[in-house]
Amino acid sequence: MTHSSSRRNFVKASSTITAGTLLSSPFIAKAAKDNSVIKVGLVGIGGRGSGAAAQAMNADPNVALTAIGDLFEDRVKLRSRILKARGRDKYQVTEETTFIGFDAYKKVIDSGVDVVILTTPPAFRPQHLEYAVEKGVHCFFEKPVAVDAPGVRKVIELAKKAKAKNLNFMSGFCWRHHNPKKEVFGRILDGSLGNLNAMYSTYNGGEVWKKKREDGWSDFEAQTRNWNAHLWLSGDSIVEQAVHCIDMMQWAMGEALPTHAEGSGGRQVYNDPDKYGNIYDHFAISYQWENGTRGYHFSRQQNGTAGSYELELYGSKGSCSAKNRHLIDAGDNSWRYRGENNDMYQSEHDELFASIRSGKAFNDGERAAHSTMVAILGRMVAYTGQKISYQDALDSKESLLPSEYNWEMTLPVPQPPTPGITRFI
Predict the structure, then answer these.
(1) What is the CATH number of the domain that holds 81?
(2) Is 357 domain-assigned?
(3) Distance (Å, rounded) from C-alpha 61 to C-alpha 90?
(4) Rounded to an integer, what is the distance from CA 300 to the centroid of its chain?
(5) pTM for the structure as a whole
(6) How far apart, in whole angstroms, are the C-alpha atoms of residue 280 and residue 277?
(7) What percent of the chain stands above pLDDT 70?
(8) Lowest mean pLDDT among 25-29, 223-227, 305-309, 359-363
(9) Cβ(194)–Cβ(318) below 8 Å
């Protein structure tokens, strides 16, 4: 929808850009023949979605992007031109396979695609994944996998269903596909640091993009266009952005889950709800594992502050910079990665499409769901000011999503959480 479009024009666009004469045969999850075209659909054509679609087109010599879906027509028009130029003959999206509106994800999945790329705001991820798995379509989905515990539990269930169907089910935790990190974390897990005592995790930076509300936007449009500022859509910055560092802590722990967490957070510069929604601009969380390891996570989105994006680890045999220097300082057994670097975004898609060709499905859904939940646990303890166990957090009944989506629904921005007053549900 262009900024000058009326709601009537949006509804008209949503009803006229439809399935048309699309193929309806379901995809059977098995090894793709060497000469068969792997058809890809994209749901959510923002910056990350566009990048993922371009990487998918580069991941295999015989792949085609055949369908695109998004809430907004103007985003499709802008980004699809860029994708068409990058994909050339592999870009095979037509007017009949371009879908706008709330059900665009269903139309993309039903259009005959073999793989769907899900890169909408994370609030919608469990719903979209559920439909894709039901239809037998391979999935690539961005992190985080959900914004609340009910969503995480749903994705854990879907990961198991995808495994039973031999469907590829790959998350966008891209550092897991980065050669230097695969090597350094492999050494950590092999005992190069000895007993791991503490981890120091940071994701400190400035504000990310924000969109000013325009005349004619409903509450729903204003929030979905500015989704990273709203708790129900993004899960807050610790879940939407800093989860990468938290996932790396999980990696270092061999995927063992923390027993509990406590911490704090708040809003020092995010003082305008129209611009900044109801999320926090800083977090400080302490996680503890059963073996006594502590993980300290700090993140912020504040302009003019010192930046830091790192994971440092301290063990009985030495210390490690796992995020940036890929170095283990352990006396005579010190080591530093000196191998080749790689484009981790491209590598994850290379691995995904190779798995589709081989028939041996890649599935990191449960791991990605638990990393997301560890980040949500951090948000919960900061919001409430309470010490909360991982299991209690995972069992939480709090659902952040509206009961239904209506373009004209009244959707006021809630007050930001207040520690000591906001309750754990």
Answers:
(1) 3.40.50.720
(2) no
(3) 9
(4) 18
(5) 0.91
(6) 9
(7) 92
(8) 25-29
(9) yes
